[in-house]
Specification:
Layout (H helix, E strand, L loop, with lengths): L2 H15 L7 H10 L3 H10 L7 H8 L4 H12 L4 H20 L5 H14 L6 H7 L8 H26 L4 H6 L4 H7 L13 H20 L2 H19 L1
Helix pairs in contact: 1-9, 1-12, 1-13, 2-6, 3-5, 3-6, 4-5, 6-9, 7-9, 7-12, 7-13, 8-9, 9-12
């Protein structure tokens, strides 16, 4: 497999598994223990790695979530707990989920090693969230925790690359969400309010942006080589199937 083929084949699984911990009921209980909503925990849990920045900066880094929706979650959390503390709690939940869900699966140690090689090789230029999270040490070094945290990092890497590609395609983040598979439902989930622009002319641009995303991410997988890259894709799909 070429690096771009590895990127394309791994992307949907990375986007799914890299965010799976956030949908776990125990993770949501952590938000309540902090005294904030699940939305505030999600927003500050992702952007909090940037530190005590303004809501506008967090929204710019997150990209695909409406700025007003980011501000709602960011400011609500900041009134109660500092952003980096929310981020630390989010990472702890990610590692907990990984340890509980992935440690018992076969080949988790190998999955962690392959993911970590890609993460280390990735170029963080123009991807502030990925760069910020990569610099944060893990609280748990079990294979499952390392896999979950690494997949979360790769998810931010894919998302950051897609944001760059979308802007290069002349699209706004909202247009990219609308022309994606979830359409208006995805826009609502990301906090964007109607009326929405027509999506017909946007589909070709989005497909171009998807291809550019794979090209931007590909160098991270070059470090694996064809054989290890193909193994990573296989392990990712097997892990998702085992969890299902």
């Amino acid at each position: 497999m070429t690096p771009e083929q590895i990127a394309a084949a791994s992307k949907p699984v990375v986007l799914d598994l890299g965010d799976a911990f956030s949908r776990d009921s125990t993770t949501l209980r952590r938000a309540r223990l902090l005294g904030i909503s699940g939305w505030a925990f999600y927003i500050s849990g992702r952007a909090g790695a940037l530190g005590d920045v303004r809501a506008e900066t967090a929204a710019a880094a997150l990209g695909f979530i409406a700025p007003d929706a980011v501000a709602d979650g960011w400011d609500a959390a900041a009134r109660i707990v500092p952003p980096f503390e929310v981020a630390a709690a989010s990472l702890a939940e990610c590692c907990r989920w990984g340890s509980q869900q992935l440690d018992a699966l076969p080949n988790t140690e190998r999955l962690a090693a392959l993911v970590e090689r890609a993460v280390v090789a990735a170029d963080a230029s123009g991807m502030p969230l990925f760069a910020a999270w990569r610099a944060v040490p893990l609280p748990d070094l079990s294979p499952g925790a390392r896999s979950a945290a690494g997949l979360r990092l790769l998810r931010e890497y894919f998302t950051g690359a897609y944001l760059l590609a979308v802007r290069a395609a002349g699209m706004t983040p909202l247009e990219a969400v609308l022309s994606g598979p979830e359409g208006e439902a995805g826009a609502v989930a990301c906090g964007w309010s109607p009326p929405y622009p027509p999506i017909g002319p946007l589909v070709r641009r989005r497909l171009w942006a998807e291809a550019v995303t794979n090209r931007l991410v590909a160098p991270a997988f070059t470090a694996l080589g064809p054989a290890d890259g193909a193994e990573l894709v296989e392990l990712l799909h097997r892990t998702r199937a085992d969890l299902a």
